[in-house]
Amino acid sequence: MIRWKRLFPLFLGAACSVFLAGCHGSRETEAFQPPETFDETKTYEITFWAKNDTNKRQTDIYKKAIEDFQALYPNITVNLRLYTDYGKIYNDVITNISTGTTPNVCITYPDHIATYLTGDNVVVPLDALSEDPEFGLGGSRLKFDGPGKEDLIPEFLKECTVNGRTYAMPFMRSTEACYINKTYVEKLGYTLPETLTWDFIWEVSEAAAKKDENGVYKINGQKVMIPFIYKSTDNMMIQMLRQKGAGYSTPSGEIQLFNDTTRELLSSIAGHAGTGAFSTFKISSYPANFLNAGQCVFAIDSTAGATWMGAGAPLSDIAEDARVDFETEIMPIPQFDPEHPQMISQGPSVCIFNKEDPGEVMASWLFTQYLLTNQVQTAYARTEGYVPVTSMAQDSAEYQDYLSRAGEDDDDFYKIKIQASMLLLSNTGNTFVTPVFNGSASLRDAAGQLIESVTKSVRRKETVDDAYMDHLFDDVASLYHLDEVKAQTSGKTDLGPLPWTARVLVGGLILSWVLILLWAFRDILKKRTQNH
Amino acid sequence: MKKITVTAIALSMAMAMTGCSGNSTETTAASEAETTAAETSAAETSAAETSAAETSAAEAGEVSVMTYEEYMAAELDSKVVIEASVQAKQSWWEDKATVYAQDEDGAYFLYNMACSEEDYEKLVPGATIQVTGYKTEWSGEVEIIDATFEFVDGEFIAEPFDATELLGKDELIDHQNQLATFKGLTVEPAGKDADGNDVAFLYNWDGSGSEGDDLYFNVSYNGQTYSFVVESYLCDASSDVYAAVKALEIGQTIDAEGFLYWYEGVNPHITSVTVAE
User: Does residue A204 contact residue A296 with C-beta atoms inside 8 Å?
Assistant: First the structure.
């Protein structure tokens, strides 16, 4: 089986050009005004662009949710379009903003919404809709038992706020976790600490990178071993900087990524990549493939990928005979300060795109709320190491029963998957998100690119020193147009010379006012002369 | 005085209206032109910078054009220079092209090679290019990344090599990325539909996709079953092979042709399927 093929490149140019230019050319729509009521005699057809983790259970849940929703609201038809890649949704939305053909409801990341918002009235703010006593969250006229605003986990809802307004509803949440071959850790003479630290991971990884005289790794007797592999290096850099209290960006979009702490972190990472103790998904492959083959000790990936991780993982891309048996442990990501753990919060949110017909937007809003009902939330959360975004669903008997059955089988109750969800549930207060602004998606990519670049460079036996870092920072800032993000938020932009019509206009205005003043002056002089 | 003032103000307003109108058109045009320029510039900058960085790295150690044998012998993460002819193009995004190339001795997978859109159009089957990049391996697929290229003289279209008897054998990897043909395969169930019926293909490996996504189908030969894929970046939903696979029926005998891509084992990217008479 193949989980994902390698995704499209990061749509770098498209993303950058969009955040620089904004969504210019987008067809303007009037700001959404909630209608007084929802007309159920009128039919609506809405589209829902949904992201799944290439997981049929997830797509089946989307389909069932649509079916159940349409049964409640026969006047609304929901057309589903499936994606497996946030980047592709982002790219397609941007393309469709300019033609006025955005979907109605769309799975998204807040970083992406910030770009969408550069178009006028493109995304519907949800604050007023949420408060509506009849059709808002927990509204009296909803045909389903939806959550009230107080039922949404505050941290998750807050992540959907851009410029002080709520532009999305959280749908699912995950974080990153470290999936560990505990058998190897102990074989190397170590004991897992209560809280993983970066020092511990690097030390064990270096020990696991030792080979014998035949080039075979001592720890696993194989020719392949990547002791520590990281799936999302953007998250790696972001979380390291956060834990160090170092800069990344300000809420207003000032770029702080290129700092001395970043240099230190990159130097450390380069050192471990040079010994073969560390690699990344982009350079090597999916962490799960190495972990499950006994070719890795520490694999950091999303909790939303937990069904692929570990000796008993129900899903795997590698041949059955390549899998090895070992004791799998899952822990929060390593920390610099174990007393104050910090980890990223991530996962899909849902936004609604504005349309000319407010009724169509209302239909979208109703469907969005339906995605927050217990039946959808608990079902979807069970497909991976996700957690529901409402306390209603988290506290439901069904979900609590599910959590209590970890390890009953290696399928629905796969132990590591349920532990992944519990990891986030018990650390929700330790999660954070990065500031969202027009360009924040590119900054995230740049953060990951720094790690990818130094790792590649040391593997190619290039020198990674201060001069290299200077060059790398310049290259990455330029490649991702981060220098222009700063200019956009804090500086004046040179808009170039005025067009000729504008020059004629200004000239004409000046001439008119000069004539008026001259005439007035002449009048005054005339009166004075007459008075004398 | 009042009349004149009013006239002057009216004139100002009229000119302002005209000016605004004209300005609007001009601004829109200018804005679009600037946006286009900015985008082009961004793309060019990105390509140029990538190219410059790679060129700079490449300058660190000059390597002459390698034979296929030398390429295969080169260490992973080392700089390589090869000459080969394009056999197929998989994708182009933001000045990066992914290409299947081959010479008389073997094949190469060129992943995300720096390439302008204009040059991508010229990367037609048979076109010969000199590629400078780094040899790497991703999930078993040996490929060249962070590469630049230039067109050179020559033309070569590979004849598909019959890999049928190598299915399931270790030697198949020696032909990695080559255009290959498989004959006399039997279509096996790929999975089940919503009603529990066997189906001949799936969108994505588990049926989680939809029209336009990769198509997966299973074939058997000599009692062993193999998974083939129509890679949607290489052959999209409008391609003949996409339609042909969607029309497959379980039990049919087919011939298939494609590139011997690797992902944790052979994962042929099928470009042609013919149902035997």
Answer: no
A94 plus A167 within the same structural domain: yes
Chain A within 8 Å of B53 (Cβ-Cβ)?
A: yes
- Alpha-carbon torsion A369, A372, A374, A376, what sign? positive
* Owner of token pair 């067009």: A499
* Residue B37, CA atoms < 13 Å, CB-side half-sphere: 6
* Cβ atoms of B84 and B101 closer than 8 Å: yes
- Per-residue pLDDT of B206-244, as tens digits, reads 999 999 999 999 999 999 999 999 999 999 999 999 999
Contact B49 A9 (CB under 8 A): no
Residue numbers in A near B213 (CB within 8 A): 82, 84
The amino acid at residue A468 is Y
Enumerate the domain spans of chain B.
68-155, 161-275
CATH number of the CATH domain containing A246: 3.40.190.10
Look up the CATH number of domain B68-155.
2.40.50.140
Q: Where are the alpha helices (DSSP H) in chain B?
A: 2-59, 68-73, 117-122, 240-246
The neighbour count for residue B267, using CB atoms within 10 Å, is: 23
Cα separation values, A247 from A163, A255, A320, A338, A439, Å: 20, 8, 44, 20, 16
* A463 residue type, one letter: T
Find the domain containing A167 and state its range: 22-174+347-395
Residue A78 shares a structural domain with residue A208: no
Nearest by CB: B205 against A1, A289, A519: A1
Asked if A12 lies within 8 A of B136 by C-beta distance, the reply is: no
Tell me whether 0.95 is exceeded by the ipTM: no
How many domains does chain A divide into? 2
Taking the Cβ of residue A96 and every Cβ of chain B, the question of whether any pair is shorter than 8 Å is answered with no
Residue carrying the six token digits 């900087």: A241
Residues A234-246 pLDDT 10s = 999 999 999 999 9
Same domain for A332 and A366: no
Asked if residue A1 belongs to a domain, the reply is no
Among A3, A4, A6, the strongest candidate for a mutation testing the B interface, having the largest count of B CBs within 10 A, is A6
Yes or no: domain B161-275 corresponds to CATH 3.40.50.1220: no
Residues A191 and A143 both lie in one domain: no
